Amino acid sequence: MLDEYQNLQPIVYKILRNAAIKNKYSHAYLFETNGFYDSFNLIFSFVKTIFCPHSYTNKENCQGCQQCKVIESGNFPEIEIISPDGMWIKKEQLQKLQEEFNKKAIIGNKKIYIINGADKLNKQAANSILKFLEEPEEGIIAILITDNIYQVLETIRSRCQIIKLKEEKRNFKEETTPMRLPYFLGISEITDEDIEKYEKVINFINYYEKNQLNTIIYMQKLWHDYIKSKEDLLTAFDIMIFYYKDVLNYLTNCNLEIFVDNQKDIENIAIKNDLKTISKKLNIITEFKEKIKYNANTNLLMDKLIITLEGGI
Ligand SMILES: [Zn+2]
């Protein structure tokens, strides 16, 4: 439960625990995760605390009651979790949520909706939850989550109690690349199929670093055959960014953060590129990642990326 976070997140722990003890909650919380590796679990513990009949009663803690077990199983009817569908949280997702919340709670008298990726609410979608936030209904608690509070619309930010988690990085020791990656990608688990796809991205970068512009000729085989949906494309760009960041890490302190399994490849890239070139490449890839969102022809975009990385326009 929440007590697990007493030492890791003392300030936040105190705030949330106090609310639980007094049974006095804000109608809306906006959590800024700040890279804290266990943020979703912490927030979920808070949600359990709100519903659990044994939390902080007579100073006793819940030892895993039936209610908490149902919540953990994901079948608790009074909790709705919304995550971005692709790049954005869609208006339809929120409309469904609203319908759900027009019904009365079946169990107890509280309902909670969690919006994961509050920065992925565009104006139109945000408007539909503003009413919720402006005229809070008794018993409904909104929990919004973001990694960067300044990317959340001001109209939303100003209507929530802001809870900032302390940055806390996971301590990796002997973990392999596939074990490290999910943490950096912000996902809870990774399938073998995903790993295969990620390896293709790494192969692609390694190939490009050896063959530069010639890469364009083999783009179909190297990239398009594997990276198909826009979502895959965005993740592939994240992987590229992390990969080049690891080249930077190697150049600055001979340490790798994620791609420990690719040390030899990264060394080879580090030999051919200096710090300035890698930073430049990182900037270009980051810019192109933004372009994906607005660009229909991703095939053309990938060719352009290679040309731009090689100093062309
Ligand atoms: Zn419980």
Describe the protein.
The protein has a five-stranded parallel sheet, covered by helices on one side. It is elongated and about 65 Å long. Helices cover 51% and strands 8% of the residues. Helix 10 runs antiparallel to helix 12. It has two domains: 163 residues, Rossmann fold (3-Layer(aba) Sandwich); 133 residues, Zinc Finger, Delta Prime, domain 3. It is α/β, with parallel strands linked by helices and 313 residues long. It contains 13 helices and five strands. The structure holds zinc ion. Zinc ion (ZN) binds next to helix 3.
Notable traits:
single chain, 313 residues, alpha/beta, Rossmann fold, Zinc Finger, Delta Prime, domain 3, 5-stranded parallel β-sheet, 13 helices, 51% helix, binds zinc ion
- Please write the CATH class name of the largest domain: Alpha Beta
In CATH terms, the superfamily of the largest domain is: P-loop containing nucleotide triphosphate hydrolases
Rounded Rg:
22 Å
What summary fits the major beta sheet?
5 strands, parallel
Q: Low-confidence segments, ≥5 residues, pLDDT <50?
A: none
Work out the helix count. Answer: 13
- Total strands: the figure is 5
From the coordinates shown, what is the CATH architecture of the largest domain? 3-Layer(aba) Sandwich
Strand order of the largest sheet: 2-3-4-1-5
Taken in chain order, the helices and strands follow as HEHHEHEHEHEHHHHHHH
**Termini separation:** 54 Å
Helix/strand class = alpha/beta
* Spatial shape: elongated
Ligand roster: zinc ion
Average pLDDT figure:
88
CATH fold type of the largest domain: Rossmann fold
- Strand fraction equals 5-15%
